[in-house]
Write a structure and sequence with these properties.
Mean pLDDT of chain A: 83
Number of helices of chain B: 11
Largest sheet of chain A: none
Number of strands of chain A: 0
CATH class of one domain in chain A: Mainly Alpha
Radius of gyration of chain A: 23 Å
Largest interface: A-B, 25 and 32 residues
Structural class of chain B: alpha+beta
Strand order of the largest sheet of chain B: 6-7-8-3-9-10
Helix content of chain B: 25-40%
Low-confidence stretches of chain B: 392-435
Order of helices and strands of chain A: HHHHHHHHHHH
Strand content of chain A: under 5%
Oligomer: heterodimer
Shape of chain B: elongated
Mean pLDDT of chain B: 83
Largest sheet of chain B: 6 strands, mixed
Low-confidence stretches of chain A: 274-278
CATH architecture of one domain in chain A: Orthogonal Bundle
Radius of gyration of chain B: 24 Å
């Protein structure tokens, strides 16, 4: 990564710029974390750090009044996002492999369609989908969310993965075949290990998209049966109707951020590109 | 180990491009055969058809006597070294070499034994635990070869294996490949565009041009008796010189004076008006250093030398000259086909290192007329070789395997490459019509 030695001045400027970016990006997160530890009376003070650190808000969402709402929605979110991610990665892997390796009519059509689906505004199909789902009984069910989530995750998965597959040298597969592998063995023993970083990256992106969705989540659910966290947050209530549920919402936001952070940390080493280095010369 | 037989092999791509045309070839068991030609001549396509990565449009391919046209690469039991090595980056050197054995479900003990044996042969033992990314170009090349030799394949196929290495390493690896092949005695087909590799490695060399076999012969035969202009221009560096000449009463009128060819070389002349004279740079000499005993076999002429390159052991002199426009165009076309570009018509002359001819002067050069070839400018055919062939075929035919037949046996003495080529050396698919 080192592009030669940067001069001292340039280095200092990069540091300053880096710090500014980090503060800009992380300050809201820090604010939310701080809010989640404040007492109800402390919320309006405008002070950054809580005057007293309390676990009340976490207690509230995990064991207290909001428990039913939060825990069931957390379960829904995890389940729905994981299933949507899994399906989309598996489908996208095969699709992208075909797109990168084979010449078949309609290849461009698939890519263009995928792109068109990806840029299509979600809000415009929510209303028809709402009616359709109610008629065929998918409203307020897990599949009722997984299917629209696939429309969000599949296009981007196909695009990222096909770009990734294109980087894997074709010769590796041919070498494997000459070495005595069947097409399937060549795919499993050579292409899959090399594609793993790409697959993980894609999986994480898909998971985030599904995890963060709000529009489908709030429109296509009505009960605990399928409502995901982002939608559930909107249904939190304060201790009285005159009190904003800011504290519990902040606590819930922190809780739902944790899996995302954990995922990235866990697979950080997998998301290194350049694994194909050394396969071929140049 | 097995012989490979190609019968009228054709390759036509979907877009109609005819990459390989009617190639017939018999590769004996244990033989080292080189496919050579300029880029786009179909040599790699031919190799990929042997290994099964490319479909055969028509014709029959036999390996060890069995038809393999319809067999998948994995069922042909061949091993191949790719131009860019194609190592598996996620596996260690050990696992890379072991890969074919793992696929054939060899026992762990045997895998270990054979991988270590191969690694030892290629001096890779200390690198077995490293990943390909951490190896140098030459080491990667050796790993690719290790993967090829670790199993008992019927034949080795090399697709320009050295083209990614720098010049020095290339020379070393060339010797290694030659040594390894002789030691293992396995049938080898080697594709290259580098004529030095072709000449030094092969028992026999197949010269291809636009998908058509031009000549199949030993390196020596190719060099001394090229069947046509293309082979003559392709083999040898610096390349053969071509001089246009008109025939008048059996004598040649050339830009360098009037020459009379010795009888053995003049057989193609009667009945022709224009011919091309081919002479290798070393057929020329500085007239002042030619010994009297051989002087009478050649002709002395004056030439204007504009550049001299002194290389220590020899020197090259460049002699520009004017040629008729049509001959010029033809030579330029030939050069283009050979992947080079003719700036001007000139002679490249190899002189003795002791010669003291200064640059930019007119000097007296001597040409050994016993070593010239006469080409038909229209068909490109070598009339001299054709005449010799017609008269008699000399000596025994090509003798099969070059290496020992025992695996791991002590290195067999090098088969002399001087063995004259008999019928085997004839072009499999002559370019010119019969006349």
């Amino acid at each position: 990564m080192d592009e030669g030695q940067l001069s001292r001045g340039t280095k200092a400027w990069w540091w300053v710029a880096g710090v500014v970016v980090i503060v800009y990006a992380l300050f809201p997160v820090a604010w939310i974390v701080s809010l989640s530890f404040k007492t109800a009376s402390d919320l309006g003070t405008g002070q950054f750090l809580p005057t007293t650190w309390v676990w009340d808000n976490y207690d509230n969402i995990l064991r207290g009044d909001a428990q039913d709402l939060f825990l069931s929605s957390l379960r829904n979110s995890i389940g729905i996002s994981l299933i949507a991610t899994f399906i989309s990665v598996v489908l996208a892997t095969f699709a992208a492999y075909a797109i990168a390796r084979l010449d078949f009519p309609g290849k461009r059509l698939i890519l263009t369609t995928a792109l068109a689906v990806a840029i299509f505004p979600v809000i415009s199909i929510v209303t028809p989908l709402f009616n359709l789902w109610r008629n065929i009984g998918l409203y307020d069910t897990w599949p009722g969310l997984i299917i629209p989530y696939l429309s969000l995750t599949l296009p981007i998965s196909i695009w990222t993965l096909s770009a990734f597959f294109r980087q894997i040298p074709w010769e590796l597969e041919q070498a494997a075949q000459v070495d005595g592998a069947t097409t399937w063995q060549a795919f499993r023993k050579v292409i899959v290990p090399l594609a793993t970083p790409g697959v993980f990256t894609t999986a994480i992106i898909s998971f985030f998209i599904a995890w963060n969705d709000f529009v489908y989540g709030i429109s296509l659910t009505s009960t605990d049966a399928a409502r995901p966290v982002p939608a559930a947050l909107a249904f939190f209530t304060g201790a009285s109707q005159f009190e904003e549920p800011t504290g519990p919402i902040a606590a819930a936001a922190v809780v739902v951020t944790i899996p995302v952070v954990v995922l990235v940390l866990l697979f950080q080493r997998r998301i290194v590109s350049g694994l194909t280095q050394g396969a071929v010369k140049g | 180990m097995a012989a490979i037989t190609l019968k009228d092999i054709n390759k036509q791509y979907g877009d109609g491009f005819h990459a390989v045309k009617d190639v017939s070839l018999d590769i004996a068991d244990g033989e080292f055969v080189i496919l050579v030609g300029p880029s786009g001549c179909g040599k790699s396509t031919l190799l990929r058809m042997i290994v099964g990565l490319e479909d055969i449009t028509s014709g029959e391919m036999l390996i060890g006597g069995q038809r393999v046209n319809e067999k998948a690469p994995r069922d042909r039991n061949l091993s191949m070294v790719f131009q860019n090595y194609a190592l598996y980056p996620h596996l260690t050197v050990f696992e890379n070499i072991a890969f074919p054995l793992r696929l054939s479900k060899t026992s762990a003990k045997e895998v270990d034994e054979r991988v270590r044996h191969a690694a030892e042969l290629l001096e890779l033992t200390e690198h077995l635990d490293r990943k390909p990314a951490n190896l140098s170009g030459g080491q990667r090349q050796r790993v690719a070869m290790g993967r090829a030799i670790v199993r008992e394949a019927q034949a080795f196929l090399f697709d320009e294996p050295l083209s990614n290495l720098d010049a020095k390493l290339r020379g070393q690896m060339r010797t290694e490949i030659s040594r390894l092949q002789k030691r293992l005695g396995i049938t080898t087909v080697y594709v290259t565009h580098d004529q030095v590799e072709a000449m030094t490695l092969g028992d026999r060399v197949v010269v291809l041009r636009r998908g058509v076999v031009q000549q199949v012969a030993t390196p020596r035969e190719l060099y001394e008796n090229p069947v046509n202009l293309f082979v003559a221009g392709f083999i040898g560096s610096p390349p053969m010189n071509f001089i246009s000449a008109t025939v008048v009463d059996g004598r040649l009128h050339t830009p360098f004076g009037e020459w009379t060819l010795p009888e053995s070389r003049a057989t193609g002349l009667p009945g022709r008006e224009v011919v091309l004279i081919g002479a290798r740079p070393e057929a020329f000499e500085d007239a002042s250093v030619v010994s009297d005993t051989i002087r009478e076999h050649g002709v002395v002429f004056d030439a204007n030398i504009d550049v001299i390159e002194w290389l220590g052991n020899e020197q090259y002199a460049y002699v520009p000259y004017e040629a008729p426009e049509d001959i010029r165009a033809q030579l330029a076309e030939l050069e283009r086909e050979l992947d080079s570009e003719a700036m001007r018509t000139q002679l490249v002359v190899s002189l003795d290192a002791t010669s003291r001819i200064p640059e930019g002067t007119t000097a007296s050069l001597w040409l050994d007329l016993r070593k010239v070839h006469v080409f038909d400018p229209a068909s490109g055919e070598n009339l001299t070789v054709k005449a010799v062939r017609g008269a008699a075929t000399d000596g025994a035919g090509y003798d099969g395997g070059a290496g020992s037949d025992g695996d791991g046996a002590p290195a067999a003495p090098q088969t002399p490459r001087s063995s004259a080529s008999g019928d085997d050396g004839l072009p499999a698919a002559p370019t010119s019509g019969e006349d």
